[in-house]
Specification:
The structure holds two protein chains of two kinds. By secondary structure, chain A is an alpha/beta fold. Chain A is 36% helix and 14% strand. Chain A is globular and about 70 Å long. Chain A starts with 19 loop residues before the first strand and ends with a helix. By secondary structure, chain B is α/β, with parallel strands linked by helices. In chain B, the strands form two sheets. Chain B has an eight-stranded mixed β-sheet with strand order 6-5-4-3-2-1-7-8. A two-stranded antiparallel sheet of chain B has the order 9-10. Classes of the chains: A alpha/beta, B alpha/beta.
Chain lengths: 399, 312
Amino acid sequence: MSETDIKIKDSTASWQDGVAKTITFIVTKDCQLACKYCYLVGKNEKERMSWDVAKRAIDYILDHERDFPEKSVIFEFIGGEPFLEIDLIDRICDYIKVELYSRCHHWFDSYRFSFSTNGINYHTDKVQAFINKNISHLSIGITIDGTQRKHDLNRVWKGVEERGSYLDVVRNIPLWLQQFPEEATKVTISSADIPYIKESVLHLYGLGIHAVNINVVFENVWKDGDDKLFENQLMLLADDIIDGGYYKDYACSFFSENIGKPLDPERENNNWCGAGKMLAVDAAGNFYPCTRFAAYSLRSKEPIVIGNVSDGIDKNKLRPFLALDRITQSPDKCKTCNVASGCAWCQGENYDAAETNTIYQRATAICLMHKARVHANNYYWNKLYRKLEMDGRSTKCEG
Amino acid sequence: MLQYLVILLDDTSVSFCHYDVTKPERRLISLDDLRQGIRFGMMENLMIQFIYPDYALPQEYLDVIDTIDHSNIKPLSALDCETDIVVVDGWKYNVAKLNGAVVVLRTSWNQLSKNHNNLKGLLNVVMRLSVVITDVERMTASDHEQYKAVLELLGKDVESICLSGKSPQFNLLTDRLMLTEMNNCGAGDMTITLAPNGKFYICPAFYYENEADSVGDLNNGLNIKNRQLYSLDHAPICRKCDAWQCRRCVWLNRKTTLEVNIPSREQCVAAHLERNTSRQLMLSLRSKGTFLPDIEEIKEIDYLDPFEIIRQ
């Protein structure tokens, strides 16, 4: 067996990763679900984006082409649940396409419309018509958390806590995969979910989803001993992925060769989070450096508004975001951490959890969880490479 | 490390910086808080600067103040032989009265653009002149163009005073000539302020903006959360910058960018126009003879906002 015969499925990189501007429309703050781990503390049925606000946001962005020099653009629609506003979204996307063409804008034919949906309305006529109209420029992720018991533990219907949403979502997975066979699902892990990680990832593979993007929540929800439980679940998952040969065709973002190494304070000093490089607009027409800085996302801090559709963007308010680096915001334990690579943070959660109104204080609630992940990740790659090596030897012997 | 303690003696104490005094009613610090503040300064080994209102303090206050080595910052109306720094708010002053004084002149940009010709007369007689542009954060691109031209004219004035054998000290143009590293306001890092309510603030501006924004009190001491953000090594733009004379006003930073460690573009551009004119002044003086031979030449740079460097 030669090196080229070794097949390991990699986590799928997103479209135009690193060269695309992400512009997010918070079209509604409403959702059919009330997920227990949802960071959106201010969801409501009233704040729905109007066409006028959406149009003014698009006009501002396209009128200021020089301020948006990125090669490509991803127009992202979030909520709440974005597909609750499919009529508005359809109108927005049509307008964007016409305007990009008529202005000879550099984003013409280098754009995507992106959605992260709970999947409940995916099959409806309006959503399907929209998908069929825009399919070559679409990226849609459906969130399904794993097995029914894991999914229904958190992803419950609003006002009916005992009613999980698994069955309402899973019925749409075949249609989704038929239309977007390469798409990944996003799984969120909170404290109560830990015992179900292994079964859930394997269940998603079984549904035909080849890439599972999974992460632990950044909020300080962890209990004593969660890191050990988490490590154990990931080791069991590693065993099953390797022993079952899933690694060839399926990916799980928990396992990556690039995590768990020390980072150089000068050469590897980039900020992890993209807040400030992206732009979000809400129903009131306010601009944010990312949706996490809108009021409905924040538990204990005032929103950070960087402008609005009437006055434009206050570039001074963007400077702190664009000047962020890893070292300046990190406590000493992170600067000297031997397993720092791959340890993520969310700028919005940093801000929300900080002792003062700053984005320059890194929250470290996931520290032990990251270290547990690194242990399991090391185990995974050591085991996988040994297996591949042994498989290679046996092939040679047979030869 | 803390080095200075500013004590606002009254709510109407004169502003010596960018902020406006927003409390019109007199409120004198209590005598007990004044004593405790001085005691705190002595125990922390801090140099104390007292900021005076425009009325005479009771003798018992002056007696307490005299129990410690200190500096007095007073408004022009209260100028006397005990004044170390006199604050001139605007352009109404008697030059002769300021002979030999250390002067802070507060002015709007609009007034500076109209009155800058008067500064040469002042520079000829004062020991030191610090001009504070109180609305520097609102200067536009065309204001900056005009500021550049004003600085060039002032540079010629300073040069002619130097060539006459004097050594004028002028914050906008001569400070950068002497410096070898950042030398800024230092609020929250090297300087802390005690307000008339007995509480500590990062600087007087934070007190006048929001009295609830204190960072400790005389009973419990200082409690500056995220204190590291006031130091240069936690200011990602400023630590790459060599406009060392910049005030680096953390209050203006917070007002304009919402972060104490990140300056606005307006503050950066103004400081770089001053830096670049200082460079021209240095080159011109050196072309006419020996001038500060031990100080390294100020480099030519192609940006006015160091944010552009870190973005690269």
